[in-house]
Amino acid sequence: MIYEAGVIGAEPARLPLSIGDPTLVSGALSVVSMYEIFTNYLQRGNVDVGFLGGAQIDKYGNINMIGIGEHPKLKVRGPGSIGSIWLGSGATANYTEHHSKRVFVEKVAHRSGAGWCEGGDSRHKLLDGRDGPPYCWTPICVCDFTEDEHRMRLVSVHPGYSVEDVVANTGFELVIEGTVPQTTPPTDWELQVLRTQVDRGGRLKNRRLTVGL
User: Fold this and answer.
1) What is the rounded distance in angstroms from the CA atom of residue 39 to the CA atom of residue 35?
2) DSSP label at 3?
3) Burial, 164: exposed, middle or buried (Cβ in 10 Å; 0-12, 13-18, 19+)?
4) 118 is a catalytic site residue
5) 128: CB partners within 8 A, 6+ apart
6) How many CB atoms are located within 10 Å of the residue 189 CB?
7) Alpha-carbon distance 18 to 151, whole Å?
8) Which one, of 3, 108, 15, lies nearest residue 50 by Cα?
9) If 0-12 CB within 10 Å is exposed, 13-18 middle and 19+ buried, where does residue 187 land?
10) Highest mean pLDDT among 28-32, 35-39, 101-105
11) How far is CA 93 from each of CA 50, 88, 189, rounded to the nearest angstrom?
12) N or C: which end of the chain has fewer CB atoms below 10 A?
Protein backbone atom coordinates (compact mmCIF):
# COMPACT_ATOMS: atom_id res chain seq x y z
CA MET A 1 0.00 0.00 0.00
CA ILE A 2 1.33 3.44 -0.93
CA TYR A 3 0.18 6.96 -0.13
CA GLU A 4 0.78 9.90 -2.42
CA ALA A 5 2.58 11.74 0.40
CA GLY A 6 5.47 9.30 -0.10
CA VAL A 7 4.81 6.38 2.25
CA ILE A 8 5.27 2.84 0.93
CA GLY A 9 4.12 -0.28 2.78
CA ALA A 10 2.34 1.64 5.52
CA GLU A 11 1.16 -0.21 8.64
CA PRO A 12 -0.56 2.55 10.62
CA ALA A 13 -1.46 1.94 14.26
CA ARG A 14 -4.83 3.62 13.62
CA LEU A 15 -6.90 4.82 10.71
CA PRO A 16 -5.03 7.88 9.35
CA LEU A 17 -6.76 11.25 9.42
CA SER A 18 -5.24 12.18 6.05
CA ILE A 19 -2.38 11.21 3.72
CA GLY A 20 -0.13 13.46 5.80
CA ASP A 21 -0.89 11.76 9.13
CA PRO A 22 2.39 10.79 10.90
CA THR A 23 0.93 7.41 11.87
CA LEU A 24 1.52 6.29 8.27
CA VAL A 25 5.30 6.57 8.66
CA SER A 26 5.65 4.27 11.68
CA GLY A 27 6.43 0.75 10.49
CA ALA A 28 6.40 1.70 6.78
CA LEU A 29 8.78 -0.08 4.42
CA SER A 30 10.01 3.19 2.94
CA VAL A 31 9.35 6.92 2.82
CA VAL A 32 10.18 8.68 -0.45
CA SER A 33 9.40 12.02 -2.03
CA MET A 34 5.97 12.84 -3.41
CA TYR A 35 7.65 13.36 -6.78
CA GLU A 36 8.89 9.76 -6.79
CA ILE A 37 5.44 8.43 -5.91
CA PHE A 38 3.87 10.33 -8.78
CA THR A 39 6.50 9.60 -11.43
CA ASN A 40 7.89 6.14 -10.59
CA TYR A 41 4.68 4.59 -9.34
CA LEU A 42 1.48 6.35 -10.41
CA GLN A 43 2.35 7.93 -13.76
CA ARG A 44 4.18 4.84 -15.03
CA GLY A 45 1.30 2.55 -14.10
CA ASN A 46 3.18 0.63 -11.41
CA VAL A 47 0.22 0.57 -9.04
CA ASP A 48 -2.03 -2.49 -9.40
CA VAL A 49 -5.20 -0.87 -8.11
CA GLY A 50 -6.23 2.37 -6.46
CA PHE A 51 -9.47 3.92 -5.22
CA LEU A 52 -10.93 7.25 -6.28
CA GLY A 53 -14.09 9.01 -5.22
CA GLY A 54 -15.53 12.30 -6.37
CA ALA A 55 -18.32 14.84 -6.10
CA GLN A 56 -19.50 13.48 -9.45
CA ILE A 57 -19.05 10.13 -11.21
CA ASP A 58 -20.37 9.56 -14.73
CA LYS A 59 -21.42 6.51 -16.71
CA TYR A 60 -17.85 5.88 -17.89
CA GLY A 61 -16.35 6.13 -14.41
CA ASN A 62 -14.78 9.56 -14.86
CA ILE A 63 -14.66 11.53 -11.61
CA ASN A 64 -14.92 15.21 -10.73
CA MET A 65 -13.23 16.60 -7.62
CA ILE A 66 -12.81 20.12 -9.02
CA GLY A 67 -16.30 21.53 -8.49
CA ILE A 68 -19.77 22.10 -9.89
CA GLY A 69 -20.45 24.85 -12.43
CA GLU A 70 -18.37 26.74 -14.98
CA HIS A 71 -14.77 27.50 -14.12
CA PRO A 72 -13.63 29.84 -12.63
CA LYS A 73 -16.98 30.81 -11.08
CA LEU A 74 -17.84 27.44 -9.58
CA LYS A 75 -21.09 27.06 -7.66
CA VAL A 76 -19.45 24.43 -5.47
CA ARG A 77 -15.67 24.14 -5.16
CA GLY A 78 -14.04 20.77 -4.49
CA PRO A 79 -10.54 19.97 -3.21
CA GLY A 80 -9.15 19.79 -6.75
CA SER A 81 -7.45 17.02 -8.67
CA ILE A 82 -4.78 16.34 -6.00
CA GLY A 83 -3.29 12.98 -7.10
CA SER A 84 -6.33 11.70 -8.97
CA ILE A 85 -5.02 12.64 -12.41
CA TRP A 86 -1.99 10.39 -11.85
CA LEU A 87 -3.74 7.61 -9.95
CA GLY A 88 -6.47 7.58 -12.58
CA SER A 89 -3.91 6.71 -15.25
CA GLY A 90 -3.78 3.20 -13.76
CA ALA A 91 -6.52 0.65 -13.03
CA THR A 92 -8.38 2.60 -10.37
CA ALA A 93 -11.70 1.52 -8.89
CA ASN A 94 -14.42 4.08 -8.12
CA TYR A 95 -16.11 4.40 -4.76
CA THR A 96 -18.48 6.83 -3.12
CA GLU A 97 -20.14 7.13 0.28
CA HIS A 98 -23.17 8.83 -1.29
CA HIS A 99 -25.46 7.41 -3.97
CA SER A 100 -27.69 10.02 -5.59
CA LYS A 101 -28.43 11.66 -8.92
CA ARG A 102 -26.20 14.56 -7.89
CA VAL A 103 -23.23 12.18 -7.63
CA PHE A 104 -24.00 9.81 -10.51
CA VAL A 105 -24.41 12.13 -13.49
CA GLU A 106 -24.53 11.64 -17.26
CA LYS A 107 -21.29 13.60 -17.71
CA VAL A 108 -19.00 15.12 -15.09
CA ALA A 109 -18.72 18.90 -15.10
CA HIS A 110 -14.92 18.64 -14.92
CA ARG A 111 -12.75 15.54 -15.28
CA SER A 112 -10.15 15.37 -12.53
CA GLY A 113 -9.63 11.62 -12.81
CA ALA A 114 -9.98 9.51 -15.95
CA GLY A 115 -12.34 6.58 -16.00
CA TRP A 116 -13.05 5.04 -19.40
CA CYS A 117 -13.00 8.60 -20.83
CA GLU A 118 -15.63 8.78 -23.60
CA GLY A 119 -16.23 5.03 -23.64
CA GLY A 120 -15.27 2.48 -26.26
CA ASP A 121 -11.53 2.44 -26.93
CA SER A 122 -11.03 6.14 -26.14
CA ARG A 123 -9.10 5.47 -22.93
CA HIS A 124 -6.83 2.87 -24.53
CA LYS A 125 -5.92 5.35 -27.26
CA LEU A 126 -5.24 8.12 -24.76
CA LEU A 127 -3.27 6.07 -22.21
CA ASP A 128 -1.33 3.56 -24.28
CA GLY A 129 -3.72 0.66 -23.76
CA ARG A 130 -4.10 1.02 -19.99
CA ASP A 131 -7.41 -0.26 -18.65
CA GLY A 132 -9.83 1.93 -16.75
CA PRO A 133 -11.69 1.30 -13.50
CA PRO A 134 -12.85 -2.30 -13.02
CA TYR A 135 -15.57 -1.57 -10.42
CA CYS A 136 -17.57 1.11 -8.68
CA TRP A 137 -18.72 0.62 -5.07
CA THR A 138 -21.56 2.65 -3.53
CA PRO A 139 -23.63 2.43 -0.31
CA ILE A 140 -26.32 0.43 -2.14
CA CYS A 141 -24.68 -1.52 -4.97
CA VAL A 142 -21.64 -2.72 -6.88
CA CYS A 143 -21.12 -1.89 -10.55
CA ASP A 144 -18.57 -2.76 -13.20
CA PHE A 145 -18.17 -1.63 -16.82
CA THR A 146 -19.25 -3.34 -20.03
CA GLU A 147 -16.59 -4.93 -22.20
CA ASP A 148 -17.31 -2.94 -25.37
CA GLU A 149 -18.73 0.50 -24.56
CA HIS A 150 -17.29 0.53 -21.02
CA ARG A 151 -20.54 1.87 -19.63
CA MET A 152 -21.37 1.35 -15.96
CA ARG A 153 -23.23 -1.92 -15.37
CA LEU A 154 -25.09 -3.04 -12.26
CA VAL A 155 -23.47 -6.16 -10.78
CA SER A 156 -25.18 -6.59 -7.40
CA VAL A 157 -27.43 -4.77 -4.94
CA HIS A 158 -26.70 -4.54 -1.22
CA PRO A 159 -29.09 -6.13 1.31
CA GLY A 160 -32.04 -3.85 2.11
CA TYR A 161 -32.10 -2.25 -1.34
CA SER A 162 -33.54 -3.14 -4.73
CA VAL A 163 -32.66 -2.61 -8.38
CA GLU A 164 -35.42 0.01 -8.45
CA ASP A 165 -33.71 1.92 -5.61
CA VAL A 166 -30.45 2.00 -7.56
CA VAL A 167 -32.12 3.14 -10.79
CA ALA A 168 -34.14 5.85 -8.98
CA ASN A 169 -30.97 7.35 -7.48
CA THR A 170 -28.73 7.23 -10.56
CA GLY A 171 -28.65 10.13 -13.01
CA PHE A 172 -27.91 8.04 -16.09
CA GLU A 173 -29.09 4.75 -17.58
CA LEU A 174 -27.25 1.83 -16.03
CA VAL A 175 -26.65 -1.32 -18.03
CA ILE A 176 -28.75 -4.05 -16.38
CA GLU A 177 -28.42 -7.59 -17.66
CA GLY A 178 -30.80 -10.29 -16.45
CA THR A 179 -31.48 -10.86 -12.77
CA VAL A 180 -29.21 -8.81 -10.52
CA PRO A 181 -28.07 -10.74 -7.42
CA GLN A 182 -27.64 -9.49 -3.88
CA THR A 183 -24.15 -8.40 -2.90
CA THR A 184 -22.22 -11.11 -1.07
CA PRO A 185 -21.67 -10.00 2.55
CA PRO A 186 -18.12 -9.79 3.94
CA THR A 187 -16.69 -12.95 5.48
CA ASP A 188 -15.85 -13.24 9.17
CA TRP A 189 -12.15 -13.05 8.25
CA GLU A 190 -12.66 -9.86 6.21
CA LEU A 191 -14.58 -8.25 9.07
CA GLN A 192 -11.85 -9.23 11.50
CA VAL A 193 -9.18 -7.63 9.30
CA LEU A 194 -11.22 -4.43 8.98
CA ARG A 195 -11.89 -4.21 12.72
CA THR A 196 -8.51 -5.28 14.09
CA GLN A 197 -6.01 -4.09 11.46
CA VAL A 198 -7.57 -1.38 9.28
CA ASP A 199 -9.95 0.46 11.63
CA ARG A 200 -8.63 -0.39 15.09
CA GLY A 201 -10.34 2.57 16.69
CA GLY A 202 -13.77 1.80 15.21
CA ARG A 203 -14.07 5.16 13.45
CA LEU A 204 -15.66 3.72 10.31
CA LYS A 205 -18.68 2.55 12.30
CA ASN A 206 -19.74 6.17 12.60
CA ARG A 207 -19.35 7.04 8.93
CA ARG A 208 -22.60 8.37 7.48
CA LEU A 209 -23.45 6.77 4.13
CA THR A 210 -26.28 8.51 2.30
CA VAL A 211 -28.72 7.61 -0.44
CA GLY A 212 -30.77 10.06 -2.47
CA LEU A 213 -29.57 13.27 -0.82
Assistant:
1) 6
2) E
3) exposed
4) no
5) none
6) 8
7) 32
8) 3
9) exposed
10) 101-105
11) 6, 9, 22
12) C
| pLDDT confidence bin for 91, thresholds 50/70/90 | low
How far is residue 188 CA from its own chain's centroid?
Answer: 24
CB atoms < 10 A from the CB of 175, how many?
14
Secondary structure (3-state) at 38: helix
Q: Give 137-187 pLDDT, tens digit per residue.
A: 999 999 999 999 999 999 999 999 999 999 999 999 999 999 999 999 999
Marked catalytic residue, from 4, 118, 149, 177? 4
Separation of alpha carbons 144 and 137, rounded Å: 9
- Rg, C-alpha atoms of the chain: 18
* Dist CA 194 CA 33 (whole Å): 29
Q: Are 180 and 163 in contact (CB under 8 A)?
A: yes
Is 37 within 8 Å of 24 (Cβ atoms)? Answer: no
CA-CA distance, 142 to 53, in Å (whole number)? Answer: 14
